[in-house]
Specification:
Largest sheet: 2 strands, antiparallel
Oligomer: single chain
Shape: rod-shaped
Number of domains: 3
């Protein structure tokens, strides 16, 4: 049986309605309280099969528990008046959900046309009411599965966020496994929200990352980049996260293939010259090394030796052309009496 519960607090983080439930705790069964928790923790739009899988109880027990809590006014199902319900023992055919149609909020979906690989600059604004979005989920089992599963990853969904999911699925053409894979990546990054998920996927779309395998590789690369950045932060003794400009430097160093050992040498040179951390100075050193084809610690050491030798030759060529010792010997032994200084006028 399908359910569309009326509540604002459904999802991985929910408020337990103790005011309504507390008086019935002594009377309800273990199955009823567990199923209630699973209902509250799941999606507002769901069915008995999903709740059954979450709770471990059969669908008949799920339907019975839902009817129990509905009869007490704890749960409310869209389109059904409080206390009105069907007996769990006599299952009825699935019905389409009913909506009031009054003052329904409208959400905007930015549609990308005409193809998956086109630029996201050209968009057509499509307006969907809450009813239309939920009807889409009813008619498309993949979209319905996406909505249910993404909420198990600690994502909450309101009307505008539902619209963004539809946009990713219908117009950017990301399949459900790809969206859920990126949602789990966002969750592990501590960012379980649809806006961040949307930003990540649309950014990857602009880089022609569309298929599941491409998304998977993008996640692997993102993980490697994050690990590289963490190493740089530790190497530089940075307590705060890099700024946007610093992040761009680190991203470029990784792209050019500089390892942390080589960056560490550049950092030491920076401290010797400047006495403090300077991303610009370190980047200047690395750019010079890149121009010279230097990519290893050994090559940087050889470059230092060449530089010292060049400086030694330069100092040698800048020595005075006369012999200073001979000049000093001459000055000390000169006999002034032998020098005719001439006579002054009038002598």
């Amino acid at each position: 049986m399908d359910y569309y519960f009326e509540a604002d607090s459904f999802g991985a983080s929910f408020s337990f309605p103790w005011g309504a439930v507390g008086g019935h705790i002594k009377d309800c069964t273990e199955a009823q309280i567990k199923i209630l928790i699973c209902v509250l923790a799941g999606a507002s739009f769901t069915d008995s099969a999903v709740i059954s899988a979450m709770s471990g109880y059969g669908e008949a027990e799920v339907d019975a528990a839902v009817e129990y809590w509905c009869s007490l006014g704890v749960l409310h199902i869209r389109g059904r008046q409080s206390g009105q319900g069907e007996p769990a023992a006599a299952p009825i055919a699935e019905k389409t959900h009913t909506f009031t149609g009054k003052n329904e909020p409208v959400s905007l979906v930015e549609a990308v046309r005409p193809a998956v690989t086109t630029s996201v600059d050209r968009k057509v604004t499509v307006r969907y009411s809450q009813r239309e979005m939920h009807e889409k989920a009813e008619q498309d089992s993949n979209l319905k599965y996406l909505v249910n599963e993404i909420q198990t990853l600690q994502f909450s969904i309101n009307g505008s966020e539902f619209a963004k999911l539809i946009e990713l699925y219908e117009y950017y053409k990301f399949d459900v496994p790809s969206i859920l894979l990126v949602a789990d990546y966002c969750r592990q990054s501590g960012k379980s929200n649809i806006s961040y998920l949307y930003t990540v996927l649309t950014d990857w779309f602009s880089k022609d990352i569309n298929t599941y395998s491409e998304v998977e590789q993008a996640i692997i690369h993102a993980g490697e980049s994050r690990a590289f950045e963490n190493k740089i932060q530790k190497l530089f003794g940075m307590e705060n996260k890099p700024s946007k400009k610093q992040h761009a430097f680190i991203e470029e160093w990784e792209k050019q293939g500089f390892n942390t050992d080589l960056i560490g040498i550049a950092y030491d040179k920076c401290l010797d010259a400047k006495g403090k951390l300077s991303f610009n100075y370190i980047n200047g050193i690395l750019k010079k090394w890149a121009e010279k084809g230097i990519s290893t610690v050994e090559q940087s050491g050889e470059d230092d030796i060449r530089f010292r030798n060049q400086q030694a030759v330069k100092r040698e060529t800048e020595k005075p052309s006369f012999n200073l010792a001979e000049y000093e010997n001459y000055a000390n032994n000169i006999d002034l009496s032998t020098i005719n200084l001439g006579s002054r006028k009038g002598d």
